[in-house]
């Protein structure tokens, strides 16, 4: 069984969206979170999805599931105090849906709608082959590592530099075991699941995703998504 855990637990303070969380901002009369979920909905290899949502917006999210007929959404759960704890809530909900030891979970940002079905398929296949799949893109510019004095410690070889994005995919039982152990030791604010798995020495494999796979965090990101979405619609209509 392949389960998507879609994290939509943030409030979007950097978006300055007048009280509406960024995942519910609309593009062409459809909230960003719905654009994202529809990709999971259309992928034959995805069996179910779990949505982790801001607690105060759970009722609204439920209405969206009904309105847009998102039949693969099998659970809606509230977020936690941190991103890691929110994802953990989603993983526990996925565990209740799980059918076997080899079930795979694809952890994805609700505000990352510019993926495609092939990315999901590639993630699932890579987990089967390597045990994990971190959707990534090659770094276009040189990455430097700095110290506490804001001085450069290391210039990273760009030919070996990739930027981790999402989905990040694992065997459900493995990421749950790591998360539970981390939480028991007071680790509750890992920046993402790949970082957490890396802390535990797990092998991580990459899946190269589309360069447009941005996370919509700021107003600039929102307008970029809208422009790219319009461009894809025009290409479909005009055959560009």
Shape: globular
Uncertain regions spanning at least 5 consecutive residues: none
Number of helices: 7
Q: What order do the helices and strands follow?
A: EHEHEHEHEEEEHHEH
Beta-strand content estimate: 15-25%
The major β-sheet equals:
7 strands, mixed
- Lateral arrangement of strands in the main beta sheet: 3-2-1-4-8-5-9
Overall average pLDDT: 92
Which terms summarize this structure?
single chain; 240 residues; alpha/beta; seven-stranded mixed beta sheet; two-stranded antiparallel sheet; 7 helices; globular
Describe this structure in words.
- With 240 residues, the protein is an alpha/beta fold.
- The protein contains seven helices and nine strands.
- The chain has a seven-stranded mixed sheet, sandwiched between helices. A two-stranded antiparallel ribbon has the order 6-7.
- Strand 1 (2-8), helix 1 (32-42) and strand 2 form a beta-alpha-beta unit.
- It is globular.
- The model has no long low-confidence stretch (mean pLDDT 92).
């Amino acid at each position: 069984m392949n389960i998507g855990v879609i994290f939509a637990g943030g409030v979007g303070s950097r978006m300055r969206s007048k009280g509406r969380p960024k995942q519910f901002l609309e593009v062409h009369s459809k909230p960003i979170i719905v654009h994202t979920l529809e990709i999971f909905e259309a992928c034959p290899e995805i069996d179910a999805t779990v949505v982790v949502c801001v607690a105060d917006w759970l009722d609204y999210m439920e209405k969206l599931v009904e309105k847009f007929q998102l039949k693969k959404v099998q659970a809606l759960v509230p977020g936690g105090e941190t991103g890691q704890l929110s994802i953990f809530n989603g993983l526990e909900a996925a565990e209740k849906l799980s059918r076997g030891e080899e079930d795979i979970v694809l952890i994805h940002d609700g505000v990352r709608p510019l993926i495609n079905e092939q990315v999901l398929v590639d993630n699932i296949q890579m987990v089967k082959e390597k045990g994990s799949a971190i959707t990534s893109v090659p770094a276009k510019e040189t990455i430097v590592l700095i110290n506490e004095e804001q001085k450069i410690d290391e210039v990273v070889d760009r030919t070996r530099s990739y930027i981790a994005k999402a989905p990040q995919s694992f065997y459900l039982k493995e990421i749950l075991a790591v998360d539970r152990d981390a939480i028991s030791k007071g680790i509750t604010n890992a920046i993402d699941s790949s970082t957490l798995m890396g802390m535990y020495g797990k092998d991580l494999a990459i899946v190269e995703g589309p360069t447009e796979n941005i996370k919509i965090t700021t107003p600039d990101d929102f307008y970029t998504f809208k422009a790219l979405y319009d461009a894809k619609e025009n290409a479909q209509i005009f055959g560009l």
